[in-house]
Design brief:
With 322 residues, the chain is an alpha/beta fold. It is built from ten helices and nine strands. Helices cover 33% and strands 11% of the residues. Strands 1-4-5-6-7 form a five-stranded parallel β-sheet, with helices on one face. Strand 8, helix 9 and strand 9 form a beta-alpha-beta unit. The radius of gyration is 18 Å and the shape is globular. The relative contact order is 0.15.
Length: 322
């Protein structure tokens, strides 16, 4: 039976652009969609300045992703990312979960509402914020206010936020997260002091244990882990943490075999492409060596497939050479 569930999760057929008037229920989407967290390669931040993503760049990215994924998760709807829903629809993606980086941004809120109304069968959830409570970029009431605005315009739209996993188990936040339609935490074993890159199984064990804890704490609330994994650096020795593309592959091969997928519980792949601009941007606010942060991608910055994709067979019926 576990093999059947894995096949349903990992090898999902979706023949083309969505035509129905509304998206299927969340449990069906969670079980049948292979999501990946996505930031366009044409987007970057340097010295505090944003280089906006281009529609051509987004199309090139999503074309590379489509044979392996039928769902994408974004982090913002500004700086060119507002083009993602239209292009994803044209390329036959099954589902898009749109992220809002700044819950107080009227532009982002307007953009997600517009996308949800224009593509009701494609936009299946909105994530209001990413780790902003943990970093104190905003407050819970800021998230709540944005969610209420979205629900007013799109009553059937699922809304949530995304934070590091441990925040979900702090008593002061339990009611806050319980008010959301689904849970989309980030669970990163690599940031734990006990983690060693030479033993990816340790990390997989932790993710599985945390999924069980979410189930116990939040009962039947749908869980879609938004971020987990390992950076896939070019070779061991690129950094002193022992990350490599082969160890990244081992992590994902193991977790896709052992994670207890179900209609109410799944995980997204993290992330689509390497982002060489990230380490410098992170170092500007957080001292330390962030070099490995450039290499979380399943593809390189040049769009070349990394070894980790060996753990993900192509989706049956998906375009082979778009």
């Amino acid at each position: 039976m576990s093999h059947i569930i894995l096949i349903l999760m990992v090898i999902t057929f979706w023949p083309g652009p969505v035509q129905s008037a509304a998206a299927p229920p969340l449990p069906i989407l969670i079980q049948q969609t292979r999501f990946i967290a996505y930031t366009p390669r044409s987007f970057s931040i340097g010295g505090g300045k944003i280089r906006a993503a281009t529609a051509a760049g987004i199309r090139e990215d999503l074309t590379l992703l489509r044979p392996f994924f039928n769902g994408v998760i974004t982090y913002s709807t500004t700086s060119g990312l507002d083009a993602v829903p239209r292009i994803a629809h044209e390329l036959g993606f099954r589902a898009v979960i749109l992220g809002i980086w700044d819950p107080s941004s009227e532009t982002e809120i307007d953009n997600v509402i517009h996308a949800a109304q224009k593509h009701p069968a494609l936009i299946v959830a909105i994530i209001v914020g990413n780790e902003g409570l943990y970093t104190r970029r905003y407050l819970p009431q800021d998230v709540d206010k944005a969610m209420q605005r979205i629900k007013k315009e799109c009553p059937e739209m699922a809304v949530t936020t995304s934070e590091p996993f441990f925040l979900y188990f702090e008593k002061e936040y339990t009611n806050f997260f319980n008010s959301h339609d689904l849970l989309m935490p980030n669970i990163h074993p690599v940031f734990e002091k006990w983690f060693t890159a030479s033993n990816p199984t340790q990390g997989v064990d932790m993710v599985i244990e945390m999924a069980e804890k979410f189930k116990t704490t939040y009962n039947t609330k749908p869980l879609l882990i938004k971020e987990t994994g390992m950076p896939g650096t070019p070779q061991i020795g690129h950094n002193d943490k022992g990350f490599s593309m082969e160890r990244q592959r081992l992590f994902w091969s193991d977790i896709l075999k052992r994670f207890p997928f179900s209609p109410n519980q799944s995980l997204a792949c993290f992330e689509a492409f390497d982002a060489p601009w990230k380490p410098a941007e992170m170092a500007a606010t957080l001292p330390g060596d962030h070099s490995s942060e450039a290499f979380w991608g399943f593809f390189t910055k040049d769009g070349k497939a990394k070894q980790v994709l060996d753990a993900l067979p192509r989706l049956p019926g998906s375009p082979q050479d778009l």
